[in-house]
Structure formats: C-alpha cells, structure tokens
Automatic annotation (TrEMBL):
Pfam family, one: HTH_6
PROSITE patterns for this protein: HTH_RPIR, SIS
Name this polypeptide is given: MurR/RpiR family transcriptional regulator
Cited InterPro entries: Homeodomain-like_sf, HTH_RpiR, RpiR-like, RpiR-like_SIS, SIS_dom, SIS_dom_sf, WH-like_DNA-bd_sf
Residue ranges constituting the SIS domain according to the UniProt record: 133-271
Domain HTH rpiR-type, first and last residues per copy: 11-87
C-alpha cells in the first residue's frame, strides 16, 4: 500500500474487519472478534502473542492481516497504532508495557524500536518536502520553532543549531510570556517549524493556525498525515514514532532535525566557518573548555 492509502485504511480498519467477517476462516474470525473488542491491546502485541492469546497459530495471524489487504502483520499493527495513539492516556500506555519484564528486555526492545522507527522514516520521508524545507529556511526573514511538552526538546535542539547558522531563529517558549505574543509580528516572509507528536498539543496547533493565517510558510515534523499540524502545513516531514511504551520515541525526529541542520549548514558553509573561528578565539580567551 502507498502511504496515503495506509493512512486512509487506518481509519477504516474496524469497519473493514466487520464487513469482511463472514468471509474469514474460523481461526481468523477468532482474531477478528478479539481485535474488535481489544484493538488497543492488540496494537502492542506481536503476531506470536496475539496467536497465543486467541488460540491460533502465528501463521493464521499473518494470513488474517493478508486477508485485510496488508502485506504483513506489522502493517496491520501499525494501522491499529495509528487509530489509538492519540487517544491513549499515559496510564493506559503504562498498562500496555506488560511485556517489559526486566531491564535487559527493556534496553533491547526500546533500542530496536528506535532503530525500526529510523529505518521506516528513511524509507518514507518525502525527499522533495525535505529539500523545499531546507531552501525555505535559507530564505526566511525569521524562523519560528514550536514544540510543546516532550516535543520541546527537539524544538530546542533544532533551534540551537539553526540559530548558529542563520542567526534569525526564535524558539517559542511557554515560560517567556504568552506564545501568541511571540508570533504576533509573523508574516509571509517567515517560516514556522512545528514539531508535534501524540498526544498532539492543542496549543501548538492554535499557534501554527495563527501563523498560517498571517501567511507564514509552515513546515511540520510529525508522525502522521492525520496530525492536526499536517493538515495546514506546506511541507510535511513524516517521522515514524511508534510507541515502545508510555514514552514517545523522539529519536527519528532528532535525526530529521539533524539532517535539516546539516542541509542548511552545508549551504552556508563559509559563514559558519567564520563564525566558529570567532567562537574558538572566545573559548580560548575565556577558558570555556578544558
């Protein structure tokens, strides 16, 4: 399936299971019934675990995914996660983490999940949108970066390095007065980078909507075309952020942020070199580093 179709099918998954129920095999019907009642739990189950829970083989689970039009069980699981990830409370996410039995398991599962997220991001990120985003940042009068709650860590990181390169970057902070006061002078010459992951911040969307109405170019770094900021973005950089537990994976978002920084930096290489030459003198004079 192409990405847009997968997104659409995520919304239609439950109705699709219901409509195809009569045509499924006996074992597949057991899976379907379990998913319809417990789709929030199944989103975090392996094919093997789902089979054990329902009382069918792992291969039956895979064939069930195929019967619904998915190339494999991971695609079906991703569709289920797409359905629920913005609806789960933090308490529910903690309850989903029952398979994390010990520290070594946690270390392996979380790192492997991050690796998978980066690999999926690399395969699916829109290269044209990335190139356009890089060029827009170079031409912007001012760059505003917004990311609330955990996304603020990515916003701060991206803003720190972009400001070294371009010197016209403002990170929207909630501890520096009202957020709207910080963007009130925004116009069509400006760019907003919106970083938004489940559970999506209402405040972030409101700020980006205001900037859009003022004519600013919107770049979003988010996990889904269903994300509120994606619907009003000029360029969307989709980042896979499948949840390992109650903590969202921000590793792929940081990787995309890194790529943006380097892309812009390589186009301003001479200016950056001069800037760092000056900084080295300051660091040396004031003994900043050992």
């Amino acid at each position: 399936m192409d990405e847009t179709k997968e997104m659409r099918d995520s919304k239609q998954l439950i109705s699709s299971i219901q409509s195809q129920f009569a045509r499924l095999s006996k074992g597949q019907k057991l899976i379907a019934q379990y998913i319809l009642k417990n789709y929030d739990k199944v989103a975090f189950m392996t094919a093997c675990k789902l089979g054990e829970t329902v009382g069918v083989s792992e291969s039956t689970v895979v064939r069930f995914a195929n019967a619904l039009g998915y190339s494999g069980y991971p695609k079906l699981q991703a569709a289920l996660q797409e359905l629920i990830k913005n609806k789960l409370t933090t308490v529910q996410r903690v309850e989903m983490a029952h398979e994390y039995s010990d520290d070594c398991t946690i270390l392996n599962k979380v790192l492997k999940s991050d690796i998978d997220n980066i690999r999926s991001t690399l395969e699916e990120v829109n290269e044209k949108a990335f190139e356009e985003s890089s060029n827009k940042l170079l031409k912007a009068r001012k760059i505003y970066i917004v990311g609330m709650r955990s996304s603020f860590a990515v916003a701060q990181y991206l803003g720190f390095y972009l400001d070294i390169i371009l010197d016209n970057v403002h990170i929207i902070r909630m501890d520096m007065g009202d957020a709207f006061e910080q963007v009130v002078r925004i116009n069509e010459e400006d760019v907003v980078i919106a970083i938004s992951f489940p559970r999506y911040s209402k405040k972030s969307f409101e700020i980006v909507s205001y900037a859009k109405r003022k004519g600013a170019h919107i770049i979003s770094i988010t996990d889904s075309l269903f994300a509120p900021v994606a619907s009003i973005s000029d360029n969307t950089l989709l980042v896979k952020s499948n949840m390992a537990s109650f903590v969202d994976s921000l590793v792929p978002a940081l990787s995309v942020a890194n790529a943006l920084i380097i892309s812009v930096g390589m186009k301003e290489k001479e200016d950056i070199k001069e800037y760092f030459d000056d900084l080295e003198q300051i660091w040396k004079e004031y003994s900043v580093y050992e």
